[in-house]
Amino acid sequence: MDTWMRFMSNDGGIVFGRVEGGYLHEYESLEQPVPTGAVLSTRALTPLAPCAPGKVIALWNNFHALAAKLDKPVPTHPLFLLKPAASVIGAGEPIRRPLSYAGKIAYEGELGIVIGRRCRDASVEEAADAIFGYTLVNDVTAADLLNENPHFPQWCRAKGFDTFCCIGPAIVSGFAWQQAHLVTKLDDVERQNYPLADMVFSPAQQVSLISQDLTLEPGDVIACGTSVGVGSIKDGATVSITIDGIGTLSNTLSAAHAEPVAPVPPGVAAGVV
Amino acid sequence: MDTWMRFMSNDGGIVFGRVEGGYLHEYESLEQPVPTGAVLSTRALTPLAPCAPGKVIALWNNFHALAAKLDKPVPTHPLFLLKPAASVIGAGEPIRRPLSYAGKIAYEGELGIVIGRRCRDASVEEAADAIFGYTLVNDVTAADLLNENPHFPQWCRAKGFDTFCCIGPAIVSGFAWQQAHLVTKLDDVERQNYPLADMVFSPAQQVSLISQDLTLEPGDVIACGTSVGVGSIKDGATVSITIDGIGTLSNTLSAAHAEPVAPVPPGVAAGVV
Lengths: 273, 273
Fold this sequence. Notes:
The structure is a homodimer of 273-residue chains.
Chain A: E1 2-8, E2 14-20, E3 23-27, E4 35-41, E5 46-48, E6 55-60, H1 64-70, E7 79-84, E8 88-89, E9 95-96, E10 105-107, E11 109-115, H2 124-130, E12 131-139, E13 141-142, H3 143-146, H4 155-160, E14 165-173, E15 181-186, E16 189-195, H5 203-211, E17 221-223, E18 231-232, E19 238-243, E20 247-254
Parallel strand pairs in A: 6-17, 8-14, 9-20
Antiparallel strand pairs in A: 1-2, 1-5, 1-14, 2-3, 3-4, 6-7, 10-13, 10-18, 11-12, 11-17, 12-14, 15-16, 15-19, 19-20
Helix pairs in contact in A: 2-5
């Protein structure tokens, strides 16, 4: 098992690499995991989400316990929606309540699969090889919007707000998810504690089946769906999601306030030319 | 009105600019529309989709005529799903039937809004200023998948396959959409002919309201929804969408065949580091 993180350095540059004993051993990138030779103390660095996905694929109804509670049959193909890149934040960053929404905001603690290489129409074996590692996801939802319109469930809108996809704190490669439990605490009170082995589609099955629908790119994240214990977050409350071996992802919901629109940093916007 | 296109040059580079009389007047980019001084004959260039959106936001039920036909009330907020970047192709490129899907594939001719500057919580006036121009979109759908699972409508999956978002041939800035009609032909037979003035939410209203949900980036595209006349495409058939003043977007549906997975070209994958 190796632990991978992404940081902003003091000069505003972004560095990625393997973390061990308080030091970052820098690598070229997630898709080209070649050491650069640089070693940096992580104390001088600001942690970011461990990858910058072009898209996040979020599964619905992928745990037997939740399907039973909702009284829904388990699906025969992964059921998913897309969360946009701008919804991603890292550990410790605030979840921002939208200015336009005063309703219920829900947490969902989930295992995240981080894609390491481009894959399309992948077999389960090829899919397993395309997984770079695993992380934690809080799949935040503006719950009152989901069924606000009775004719069109608004999955992408309710789950697509800026800051509504917390990812981190690290990616762990070679992680044995089969034995792990995911624990979600809301202000230190345990709300979710479920075994990942209860998944309907395993990570490799998810990657294989979803790659038949759309091409997965390095850095893309699949949020594997949640299980029982989902609930709402009050403004100011902190959600902490833990899987032993990966770490803890903590984010606090901040009340609505106008956010200045930053100019587009170079290289962040879609490459138009 | 100016007409903007994006091309691949013989050396594999990508150029963007204003097209006039068979020549491309190159500009830095869509978000920085500054002329480079270069002028190139378009005959030596291969057309691409006119922008490379990080995300495509596709509206449902945004025309009064279609709402009446479906017997649905018009919505009070844009209803949308997300189509991923990898679904985008340009004019003339083939729509590929997925290997895993033998069912009905539908065309939807739509006006596309191309975002010119980052916007969040924009007023209608700010939103109007953030629109770079207008293009054409064929919002292709694997129609049998939409309601395959009775518990979860699969909008993102059905509309998110690679090549299922045709965009082009050009972006026209300063275009007066209010007077325009959109015409869709299937193998030269007219199937859609509807006035854009029948939209529920105007382009500026769409950009304003959607910017309250998620940050829009330069190059992002909003597909404004379709109206009556949607139908299915047989393998080998060609869909041509025309708005006078913008041009014609033609794409042919090719039968399913295995597509080699290209290595990730530099700069195309999500920037992980």
